[in-house]
Amino acid sequence: MPLRCVDALREHHVRQVVAREKAGESWQENDLVFCTHTGRPLDVNNVERDLGVIFDKAGLNGREWTPRELRHTLVSLLSDSGMPLENIARLVGHNGTAVTELVYRHQIRPVIEEGAKAMDLIFPRTPKKA
């Protein structure tokens, strides 16, 4: 797992412990990493709405970005970085490479630099804490 994700999950866990304490008796333990403020499973409509808000705040059209779009982007980025198609297919749960090749993989090298510059503007670097 990328270190960025490990860090984010650790921070999320701390926030979830606080949410669990705040919810008290109304907390339902379902052993979920991502859940509501009372421990219940997330509803897909709420996830898509919340993602839309995040994208809108980042200056993107939140109605155009869904979890499916994020999945396509991940596969494209991994493919463009040179990761073997077989590994990508396994990572995203495909039985073979056909679906990964035909549906998900989009070569993005021509726009990656433009996108990287935009990402740097949207999410400026912050100094790392020692």
Write the layout of secondary structure elements.
Blueprint: H1 3-23, H2 44-57, H3 67-80, H4 85-91, H5 98-104, H6 109-122
What does this structure look like?
There is one protein chain. With 130 residues, the chain is mainly alpha-helical. It folds into two domains: 1-42, no CATH class; 43-124, no CATH class. Helices cover 59% and strands 0% of the residues. It is built from six helices and no strands. The chain has helices spanning 3-23, 44-57, 67-80, 85-91, 98-104, 109-122. It is globular, with a radius of gyration of 18 Å. It starts with a helix and ends in an 8-residue tail after the last helix.
**What is the radius of gyration?**
18 Å
Order of helices and strands, N to C?
Answer: HHHHHH
Number of discrete domains: 2
What kind of sheet is the major sheet?
A: none
Strand tally, please?
0
Number of helices: 6
Please report the distance between the alpha carbons of the first and last residues: 22 Å
The structure class reads mainly alpha
User: What fraction of the residues are assigned to beta strands by DSSP?
Assistant: under 5%
Average of pLDDT = 87
Regions with little confidence, pLDDT below 50 for 5+ residues: none
Keywords: DNA recombination
GO molecular function: DNA binding
InterPro entries: DNA_brk_join_enz (IPR011010), Integrase-like_cat_sf (IPR013762), Integrase_catalytic (IPR002104)
Protein name: Tyr recombinase domain-containing protein
